[in-house]
Design a protein that fits this description.
single chain; alpha/beta; 6 helices; 11% strand; globular
């Protein structure tokens, strides 16, 4: 093979591999659109799932996480849901997303009895898997930002949950935050596709805690 042809083949191969995450991401967005509603129009379900995000060192919620919890509280007050699962990371001694999320919702009037913390929701796949197998949820409302909703909906529905989503975008988060999140979603969505199609890895599980 001539050197020029090898170079063209190399460039084509790199471009093809680079396009795969974009194709998967685009397909995920198209697939999820039919399942995304406004807080006013979403069909009532028993359970909302709020996905964790950054908690600051002082224990306060990042803007994105604050808006996710605020949106879930809004759904609860409107009678759209009766229970809220706060799912997030709690692997480290001084970092506890579900506890911070739960405290924030309780401060806004949601009874502690109607909130279920999920301390092993380390990533979206784990949250959806545990919602099904630990909390025995079958038809949740997923609450997160626009950039994350398509992957969350795809993952939960691929695992057998009749999930719909509500966007928690309540403010402008800045070009930096949204840009990084959008780029990260390319790789994260590809990984989610691999997990739900090929691997189906089991996350940290435990005894069932029915929320339905």
């Amino acid at each position: 093979m001539k050197k020029a042809n090898r170079k063209k083949l190399f460039i084509f191969s790199v471009a093809f591999l680079a396009a795969i995450p974009l194709v998967v991401r685009t397909g995920t967005i198209v697939f999820s659109k039919r399942y995304i509603f406004s807080a006013e129009d979403v069909p009532a379900r028993r359970v909302a799932i709020v996905f964790g995000a950054q908690v600051r060192p002082d224990g306060s919620l990042s803007f994105m996480l604050q808006d996710r919890v605020e949106t879930a509280v809004e759904l609860y007050r409107a009678g759209k849901v009766q229970k809220i699962i706060m799912s997030g990371d709690n692997r480290f001694e001084y970092y506890n997303e579900p506890a911070a999320m739960m405290a924030y919702a309780i401060e806004r009037g949601v009874p502690a009895a109607d909130i279920q913390p999920d301390y092993a929701g380390r990533r979206t796949y784990d949250t959806c898997y545990r919602a099904r197998d630990v909390f025995l949820v079958d038809a949740p409302i997923l609450v997160t930002q626009d950039f994350h909703l398509p992957r969350a909906i795809l993952t939960c529905r691929a695992l057998g949950l009749d999930a719909v989503g509500v966007s928690a975008d309540r403010r402008w988060y800045g070009y930096g935050a949204l840009g990084w999140s959008s780029v990260r979603e390319l790789a994260a969505t590809l990984r989610a596709a691999v997990d739900i199609i090929l691997r189906r890895p089991a996350p940290v599980l435990g005894e069932p805690i029915p929320v339905n």
